[in-house]
Amino acid sequence: MFKEKAMIDLGQSTDNILVSGHRGICALYPENTMVSFRAAVEAGVDNIEMDLNVTRDGQLVVIHDTTVDRTTDCVGNVRSFTLDEIKSMDAGSRFDNKFAGERIPTFEEFLKLVATTGISLNVELKDYTFECADKAVALLLKYGFDGRFVVTSFDANITQYVHQVLGFPTQGFPLSKMANASNDTNKHLSAVGMGSWWIDEEPSAAEYRALGIDYWTWCPDTEEEVLRHIAAGASLMTCNNPFPALKVLKERGLHK
């Protein structure tokens, strides 16, 4: 599975800024559910960001937190439940009662939805284990995503493992925001994209690009914020609500 150098070209640039749906369209739908992902596909996003955890019986499920407390009608660690138990939980009512009965998807269910759309993926591992990384990459390859996914993590050991051992591209975050990070440039350079909520902080887009790391920004959800992120040098924007970004970028000829 190892590749000599993990690279990816999703077609993003400062002249063609891509739009990613954060957990689907989490501003308008219950995050990381199939209804949210279907809405993102229909909206015309270029990329979808989603989150993975592992159940007690070793299954990959799409949920942001390592517990089910915030987004479901149950309480406990994802790792403490079997897939069948996870599937019995209501993952929609906490957002809005009209979404009652929405379930936590498996990663495979999600991949089946988007496999033929041409959408690329930003797969964030919330379960900081090599098991989660191995299983995620195996399923991504099974469903034909080679060349159109990155793996993301707030743990530098995970991004380094995915890049240097498995040989696939990653998106990191500034080292000050990551677990197990140091000034070890190998960990920093394991990323092909750098996710930033902190566009007013250093390093700048230019400094990252000088290291061969693209500049991907997170969560501009109004037209004013989108304009700020364009000025900061973003080539990919991950949005809770992608509609303002799609509107502004298309009006300015910055989204093909």
Could you explain the architecture of this structure?
The chain starts with 17 loop residues before the first strand and ends in a 5-residue tail after the last helix. It is α/β, with parallel strands linked by helices. Helix 1 packs parallel to helix 3 and helix 4 (130-142) crosses helix 5. The chain has 9 helices and 9 strands. Helix 7 links the parallel strand 7 (191-196) and strand 8 (214-218). 30% of the residues lie in helices and 17% in strands. The protein has helices spanning 34-43, 83-87, 107-114, 130-142, 156-166, 185-188, 205-210, 223-232, 243-251, and strands at 18-22, 47-54, 60-62, 120-125, 149-152, 170-172, 191-196, 214-218, 236-239.
Instruction: Based on Cα principal axes, name the global outline.
Output: globular
- Strand tally is 9
Strand content: 15-25%
Q: What about the largest sheet?
A: 8 strands, parallel, barrel
Helical proportion?
25-40%
End-to-end gap: 33 Å
Structural class: alpha/beta
Write the layout of secondary structure elements.
Blueprint: E1 18-22, H1 34-43, E2 47-54, E3 60-62, H2 83-87, H3 107-114, E4 120-125, H4 130-142, E5 149-152, H5 156-166, E6 170-172, H6 185-188, E7 191-196, H7 205-210, E8 214-218, H8 223-232, E9 236-239, H9 243-251
Parallel strand pairs: 1-2, 1-9, 2-4, 4-5, 5-6, 6-7, 7-8, 8-9
Antiparallel strand pairs: 2-3
Helix pairs in contact: 1-3, 4-5
Summarize the structure.
It is built from 9 helices and 9 strands. The protein is of the alpha/beta class and 256 residues long.
